[in-house]
Design goal:
Blueprint (H helix, E strand, L loop, with lengths): L1 E5 L3 H12 L3 E6 L2 H10 L3 E4 L5 H6 L7 E4 L4 H15 L3 E5 L3 H4 L16 E3 L1 H14 L5 E5 L4 E7 L14 H4 L5 E8 L2 E3 L12 E7 L3 H7 L9 E5 L3 H13 L4 E6 L2 H10 L4 E4 L5 H6 L7 E4 L4 H13 L4 E5 L6 H7 L3 E3 L1 H13 L4 E7 L4 E7 L20 E8 L2 E3 L12 E7 L3 H8 L7
Parallel strand pairs: 1-2, 1-4, 2-3, 4-5, 5-6, 12-13, 12-15, 13-14, 15-16, 16-17
Antiparallel strand pairs: 7-8, 8-11, 9-10, 9-11, 18-19, 19-22, 20-21, 20-22
Helix pairs in contact: 1-14, 6-9, 6-14
Length: 458
C-alpha cells in the first residue's frame, strides 16, 4: 500500500510515523527541506521537497502508483487542490484533507466536497474535533481525558491517582471482588515517565496517570473509585477566541444553556467575530495574562478555565494564574511535544493535544473494515483500538487465558450486542464481538494476527 502525505509538520510527521511502522510505503511532501530531512533521518519514508498541489511534485512523489493521499499542509486551499489533482490526474482512490476554516465546513456547502465537484473522502476539521473533545472533558471534570467507544456504551477515561484514591496499593485483580457490579479494566499506567501495561498484581500509587475502560453508564461511580467526585462546572472561562474557542462556545450554548460562559480574546478583530458568532457568551477584549482582565472575567468565581489560544506558553501561564486566583480546574491546549509531564506536575488537570486528536481521527478512517475506532494515547506510546472479531479469528472460541496475547496488549471491554463484558481469564470471545483494547506502539501489528484483520486498508 502506497500513501502520499502532503505536509511534514507535526500532524503529517505523526501520521507518517504510524503508517511507516505498519510496513506501509509512505512518501512525505513539503516545501521545507528541513522538515523533509528530519523525517528522512528518523522514519522509514521517502521525501520530496516541493509544493504539494503541483502536479509535477505529486508525480515525482509517486502519485501515479499511490492508493491514498492525506493532505495536511498549513493551507486549506493547498490541501483541497492537492486532493483534486490527485483525483483528476492520478486517479488516487482515497483522498483525505485537513480543512480548518469554518467557511468551508458550513453544512449548506457540503455538496462542494463530492465526487462530481471536489472529491474528498474525509474532511478533518481539527478545531471542531478539539472543541468536542474539550466539551467531553468538561462533562467529566475528574478526568484528564475521555474517549467514547463501542457506540458510546464504553468510555476510555484518563484519571490521575490522588491521595484520596480509595484503591491505592490495591492489586488490580482485587477490583472485581471489591466492586462486583462495577466492571473496570485498567489499560495503561504512566508513572514518573514510565509506561506500564499492567498485570493483575500491579498496584496504583499517588501520581499515577491511569487509562481505564468502563461502561459509560457507570462513569460517575467508576471515577469515585479513583477518588474523583468533582461536579460539572457551571461557570467556564475560555481564553482564545479563534476557531477552537468559538466552536466550544457554540457547543456550550447549544448543549448546556445552564452553563455561564465568558471568553477573553487578545486580538480586537477576533474578539468582534467571536462576539458576533456567540449569542449568550460574554466576550472580553484584552490580555488574559492581565490580572485586571481576569478580575473583570470573575476568574475567582469560575470553576473551569479552558485555555485554547494559539500560544502554548500563554495557555500554560494563564491556566496557572487563573488557579492562583481561585479557579478550580484548568483545561489547557498544548501543541508542543514534551510539555506533558511538566504540566501535570504544575497542577493543570487536563491537557488537550490537537495533533493527537487529528491523527486519531485520520487513523480511524484509514483503518476501515473491522477496525471500528482508533485513538492514540500518551504521545504515541500506544493506541486504544476497537476491533470486531471475525469467525476465523484465532482468538475466537478460546478462553483469554489460553489465547496467546502479547504482553503489550490489554483487553478492556467486550461489546456483545447490547451487553458489555469485562474480559477475564475465563472469558471466551465470540464471532462479531467488538473488543476494546490497548496496544503499545510495538504490538499494534500483533492485533492484526490476533483478530485476523488487517489494520491497514480495506
Amino acid at each position: 500500500m502506497q500513501v502520499l502525505i502532503c505536509g511534514a509538520g507535526q500532524v503529517g510527521y505523526s501520521i507518517a510515523r504510524y503508517l511507516s511502522n505498519e510496513s506501509t510505503d509512505v512518501t512525505l511532501v513539503d516545501l521545507s527541506e528541513e522538515l523533509i530531512a528530519k523525517a528522512l533521518d528518523s522514519l522509514d519514508v521517502r521525501g520530496v521537497v516541493g509544493h504539494a498541489s503541483y502536479p509535477t511534485v505529486l508525480a515525482q512523489a509517486g502519485a501515479a502508483d499511490a492508493d491514498m493521499i492525506i493532505a495536511v499542509t498549513q493551507s486549506d486551499e493547498v490541501n483541497m487542490v492537492a486532493c483534486q489533482v490527485a483525483h483528476s490526474l492520478f486517479n488516487i482512490t482515497t483522498k483525505i484533507a485537513r480543512i480548518r476554516q469554518s467557511a468551508y465546513s458550513d453544512p449548506k456547502w457540503s455538496n462542494m466536497f463530492t465526487r462530481d465537484h471536489m472529491p474528498i473522502d474525509l474532511i478533518i476539521s481539527p478545531e471542531q474535533e478539539v472543541a468536542r473533545a474539550i466539551r467531553r472533558r468538561l462533562e467529566v471534570p475528574g478526568a484528564f481525558d475521555i474517549i467514547p467507544m463501542g457506540g458510546g456504551a464504553v468510555s476510555i477515561v484518563g484519571v490521575r491517582c490522588v491521595e484520596d484514591t480509595p484503591i491505592l496499593d490495591t492489586p488490580l485483580n482485587k477490583l472485581d471482588p471489591l466492586f462486583p457490579d462495577l466492571a473496570i479494566t485498567v489499560l495503561f499506567i504512566e508513572r514518573n515517565g514510565e509506561k506500564i501495561v499492567p498485570k493483575g498484581d500491579e498496584i496504583l500509587l499517588v501520581g499515577d496517570e491511569v487509562y481505564l475502560a468502563l461502561a459509560t453508564e457507570h462513569l460517575k461511580r467508576g471515577l469515585a473509585v479513583f477518588g474523583h467526585e468533582e461536579t460539572e462546572g457551571r461557570r467556564v472561562l475560555i481564553v482564545g477566541g479563534g476557531n477552537i474557542g468559538s466552536h466550544l462556545g457554540q457547543l456550550l450554548e447549544e448543549e448546556r444553556p445552564d452553563v455561564r460562559v465568558k471568553l477573553i480574546e487578545l486580538d480586537k478583530n477576533q474578539a468582534k467575530r467571536a462576539a458576533q458568532n456567540l449569542s449568550k457568551t460574554v466576550v472580553l477584549h484584552g490580555d488574559a495574562l492581565d490580572p485586571d482582565i481576569l478580575t473583570e472575567a470573575s476568574v475567582s468565581q469560575t470553576e473551569t478555565i479552558v485555555a485554547v489560544s494559539n500560544d502554548d506558553e500563554v495557555n500554560i501561564l494563564v491556566s496557572l494564574l487563573a488557579k492562583r486566583h481561585g479557579c478550580q480546574r484548568a483545561v489547557t491546549l498544548v501543541n508542543k511535544r514534551g510539555y506533558g509531564n511538566l504540566i501535570s506536575q504544575l497542577g493543570i488537570e487536563a491537557i488537550v493535544n490537537p495533533r493527537a486528536i487529528t491523527v486519531s481521527h485520520i487513523l480511524q478512517f484509514v483503518r476501515q473494515g473491522l477496525v471500528r475506532s482508533v485513538h492514540t494515547l500518551a504521545e504515541g506510546v500506544g493506541e486504544v483500538i476497537e476491533v470486531e472479531a471475525m469467525e476465523t479469528s484465532g482468538i475466537v472460541g478460546k478462553t483469554l487465558s489460553a489465547a496467546k496475547i502479547s504482553k503489550g496488549i490489554r483487553l478492556g471491554m467486550i461489546v456483545r450486542g447490547d451487553s458489555l463484558i469485562s474480559p477475564r481469564g475465563d472469558t471466551v470471545i465470540e464471532p462479531h464481538d467488538r473488543v476494546v483494547l490497548f496496544a503499545t506502539a510495538d504490538t499494534v501489528k500483533k492485533v492484526e494476527k490476533l483478530f485476523t484483520v488487517s489494520l491497514e486498508f480495506f
